Amino acid sequence: LSSRDLSRLSQVCMGLHTSVAAYLLFACSIRRRLSYWFTDIESFRELQRCTGLLVSGSVALSIFERVRYRNTDIDLYVLSDQWKPVTSFMLRSGYQLVSANSKDRRYEWDSRHYLGYHLPGISAIVDFIDDAGRQAQVIFAVYSPLDVVLGFHSTVVMNVISHSGAVCLYPYSTFVLRRSIVFGYTASEDKRVDITQKYGRRGW
Length: 204
Fold this sequence. Notes:
Layout: H1 3-9, H2 14-27, H3 30-34, H4 41-51, E1 54-56, H5 58-65, E2 74-79, H6 83-92, E3 95-97, E4 122-130, E5 135-141, H7 145-149, E6 159-161, E7 166-168, H8 171-176, H9 189-201
Parallel strand pairs: 2-5
Antiparallel strand pairs: 1-2, 3-4, 4-5, 6-7
């Protein structure tokens, strides 16, 4: 059922309201979704609480959509000042840095030369991968993680998971109308087409 149909069904009677609530609690479980990337969910959620780290991108969208997208990575957004605890957590969780400078697995935590990326609101993007091939991308924000999310190319991906819950900024247009409002995206034309086709295949 669609999000709108579930909402209507839950209003029929108290019994159906309880059943729909129980279903959504399972289908939209943040812990269950994050467990694909992290075995110690409690520690990850505590990291979120301490650093203000947000999960966004396809993973956050999939929770509201109640699906699991294949071959997708997890996007983590955090203030650049929190680079050390976040990167250290990723390494403890079995991930390795993916870059030309990290192949020898020697890391200089007091040097930020590898954190170089040029986009508004972003100071760096660092890629990780674990032995099972699961990929994670940490986006370090200049001002705040939410500032980066609000600068996304379109509304379909303006969803976040914090340490205490999940938020969709455009629920009606995204999950009822199945439309995404596109903003002034500055990427190349090829990249713009790729993104449009990606979310077009997913139903927007």
